[in-house]
Amino acid sequence: MEAFPGPTSHIYFSQRLRLHYVDWGNPDAPPLLLVHGGRDHCRNWDWVAQSLRKDYHIIAPDLRGHGDSQWITGGTYTTADYVYDIAQLIHQLKLAPLRIVSHSMGGGISLRYAGLYPEKVSKLVAIEGLGPSPKMMKERTAQKIDEGLRGWVDQLRKLSGRQVRRYLTVEEAASRMKEANPHLTMEQAHHLTVHGVNQNEDGTYSWKFDNYIRAFPATGMSMEDTGYIHSRISCPTMLVRGKESWASDPEEDGRAAVFQDVQVESVDKAGHWVHHDQLDHFLGLLKGFL
Fold first, then answer.
1. pLDDT confidence of 136, banded at 50, 70, 90?
2. Strands, DSSP E only, in the chain?
3. How many domains is the chain built from?
């Protein structure tokens, strides 16, 4: 990766949590928020930010429980809390109206924020941010409430006993990163790993994210309510998916139909991390859309 001056780190507070974000400078330019996905961190956007930093004032937060942001006391990370954190960041920095580019869980958070506050978002990009397909959601919601709550208890109990994995070197952790996403180059995997691990006191390395983020919340919004929130998004919206991903096509499964102004882009030779797997193609789509 070409060498370039990195962003500056900053702290803000939300629900008494100490949360981290990076600022790529150029404060007089239009604001652009980059929101990462689950088990990720704000520096996963470095290549996108480097390409756009001359045209936008780029802010990229670490979501609670991720990166250099604080972990919660307890074990339940909800979308509503993530939305509040993003709302607070936008409010405190006076970023609205703004553009948002987001990935995976960060896409779900951003879509919900834009549906709650449509006047605050001028353009929205969500890379595989719609979550499980309608078919998968119907299977989950077919459970009775007691079954779902017991499953949630079992999830947290297992996670409470899960040992944090330790890697002897950054290179070993980077190899695990590349194993999870074969499209990555080793250079990409190393960069993402350097910013995604902490060194333990014994010299080993572990991922920064809180293992409790792996648990699905016991309750959540119905598909109907989610569709209603998405129907409130008034800005142009681009939904991006990788053709080799587990995510379903939002045009084929009907979820794109509720948006007021939407375009769907399916990218060849890309999995869940489209902005890593096909960076140049994604940047072409992104610059044209923004």
1. confident
2. 8-14, 17-23, 31-35, 57-61, 98-103, 121-127, 197-199, 205-207, 237-242, 262-267
3. 1
